[in-house]
Amino acid sequence: MSACCTATGMAPQSYDLTKRINVEDKRLLNCKQVDVNQLMPLKYHWAWEHYLNGCNNNWLPSEVPMQRDIELWKSDALSDAERQVIMRNLGFFSTGESLVGNNIVLAIFKHITNPEARQYLLRQAFEEAVHTHTFHYIVESLGLDEREVFNMYHEVASIQGKDDFVMNLTADVMRDGFSTETTEGIQQFIKNLVGFYVIMEGIFFYSGFVMILSFHRQNRMTGIGEQFQYILRDETIHLNFGVDLINTIKEENAGVWTPELQEEICEMIREAVKYEIQYAEDCLPKGILGLNANLFREYVQHVADRRLERIGLRALYGSRNPFPWMSETIDLSKEKNFFETRVTEYQTAASLEW
């Protein structure tokens, strides 16, 4: 017996070394076997891989110089239509990213009981904070009216419609008495995951990426463009994690993936596509940079089909991808120059693989 135990009268602690956590008990939902965040042994290696990929894309907006953007914004070289596209995107993303972060912290984290999946959610929540910081950094750098940008949700109907669409899903999961211990509860939780990972991050955000990166392809607004490239990479990992999360919950909970739920999700996608087309028409009433609302209609429908297929549903639209260069943007390694502008080096030596 140690002197410490003797002096205090405490008995020496004993441990049941025969008790080990069965890796199969570490379920995504309703795990009652693990009473601490016991990361090892890993059950879902895909969750840990997404976490490591997120770490490899570590960045902060303040690392990206904004001087060229400031000079261009203060000049007469941007048309009113081009300025509107930039402002509308800043207005949507400034609230959209924070809504995703809120949903992770307030709705998803509570019900995901697997430690490695929670590890990724913690990482993602940090990234959402960085993204919100990014839009504040851009607004501050360009000398924009902060209230106009961050309050655009209340003033632009196409932005409000998209935000309200996903906020209602968060409210459904946060209501008193909600639980994932019933089939109906798991189905509602899946709809929340689809709403944020597949729709918000996998569809709504991608139109904005095209709009801003179209400036960057012309070597304009390069600081904002670099930051959007980093965000695009983060969101690609978020989407991949969300798809794996949804598909694994489906596999582990027999009876939840009913034809009725599948039709509900298809209807959610249809509604989301309508919102996003309305947003594109609002941002591009006349078209700029070779972009117009009709091209975005095709793009949104094409992206929606790819997202549906990844969660095991049939494509709805059959539209082509009018912006194939977006795939090239995602696939570029960090060492390359993006469209004549050098991207700030990531904080880690490892390179991302897609």
Can you give a write-up of this model?
This protein has helices at residues 3-8, 45-56, 67-74, 80-111, 115-142, 146-150, 152-155, 157-174, 183-217, 222-252, 259-283, 293-310, 325-331, and strands at 337-338, 341-342. A hairpin with a 2-residue loop joins strand 1 and strand 2 (341-342). It has one domain (45-342): Ribonucleotide Reductase, subunit A, CATH 1.10.620. The protein is globular, with a radius of gyration of 23 Å. A two-stranded antiparallel ribbon has the order 1-2. The protein has 354 residues and is an all-alpha fold. Helix 2 (45-56) runs antiparallel to helix 10, helix 4 packs antiparallel against helix 9 (183-217) and helix 9 (183-217) packs antiparallel against helix 10 (222-252). The chain has 13 helices and 2 strands, in the order H-H-H-H-H-H-H-H-H-H-H-H-H-E-E.
Any chance you could write out the topology, listing elements then pairs?
Blueprint: H1 3-8, H2 45-56, H3 67-74, H4 80-111, H5 115-142, H6 146-150, H7 152-155, H8 157-174, H9 183-217, H10 222-252, H11 259-283, H12 293-310, H13 325-331, E1 337-338, E2 341-342
Element pattern in H and E:
HHHHHHHHHHHHHEE
Termini Cα gap: 55 Å
Let me know the largest β-sheet. Answer: 2 strands, antiparallel
Going by CATH, what is the homologous superfamily?
A: Ribonucleotide Reductase, subunit A
Radius of gyration: 23 Å
Structurally, how many domains make up the residues? 1
The CATH class designation is Mainly Alpha
Query: Which structural category fits the helices and strands?
Result: mainly alpha
Do you know the CATH architecture? Orthogonal Bundle
Number of alpha- plus pi-helical segments: 13
Query: How many strand segments?
Result: 2
Helix content: 55-70%
Fraction of residues in β-strands: under 5%
Strand order of the largest sheet: 1-2
Please give the oligomerization state of what you see: single chain
